[in-house]
Amino acid sequence: MKIESLHHIAIICSDYEKSKYFYTEILGLKIEKEIFREERQSYKLDLSLNGTYLIELFSFPEPPSRPSRPEARGLRHIAFGVNNLEENIDFLNSKNIETEAVRIDPFTHKKFTFFADPDELPIEIYEV
């Protein structure tokens, strides 16, 4: 097997409009394509970052919850690199999005923190 790159991350949300707003207006991802799949009563929103296809956001009627805390099996979190951690924390806080205390990676000595999307999916921002 020879993987060339990560193609996308798929996220199922409980409130499509709320999550669409969060990922586009708060995180700044660009909408590439939005379709409603009648047979599944589901939206599929393709999102990109800096021209790279990154996230598929799905809505489904009554999706079950998935535990993420305490550390459950499965996808742990998604992480985005940022140039200035404090600036991004201030922005998130100004939008009433709570961030955890800043931590220092013991190996790289870089700063990072976590916050959550509307469905409590953990998201990390890591100072690059």
Automatic annotation (TrEMBL):
Any idea which UniProt keywords this protein has? Metal-binding
Q: Which InterPro entries match?
A: Fosfomycin_Res_Enzymes (IPR051332), Glyas_Bleomycin-R_OHBP_Dase (IPR029068), Glyas_Fos-R_dOase_dom (IPR004360), VOC_core (IPR037523)
Domain VOC intervals: 5-128
Question: Superkingdom, according to UniProt?
Answer: Bacteria
Q: Name one Pfam family in it.
A: Glyoxalase
* Listed GO MF terms: metal ion binding
Q: Which Gene3D superfamilies match?
A: 2,3-Dihydroxybiphenyl 1,2-Dioxygenase, domain 1
Q: Which PROSITE patterns match?
A: VOC
List, alphabetically, the PANTHER family matched.
FOSFOMYCIN RESISTANCE PROTEIN FOSX, LYASE, PUTATIVE-RELATED-RELATED
Write the protein's name. VOC domain-containing protein
Task: Give the species this sequence originates from.
Answer: Rhodonellum psychrophilum GCM71 = DSM 17998
User: What lineage is this protein's organism placed in?
Assistant: Bacteria, Pseudomonadati, Bacteroidota, Cytophagia, Cytophagales
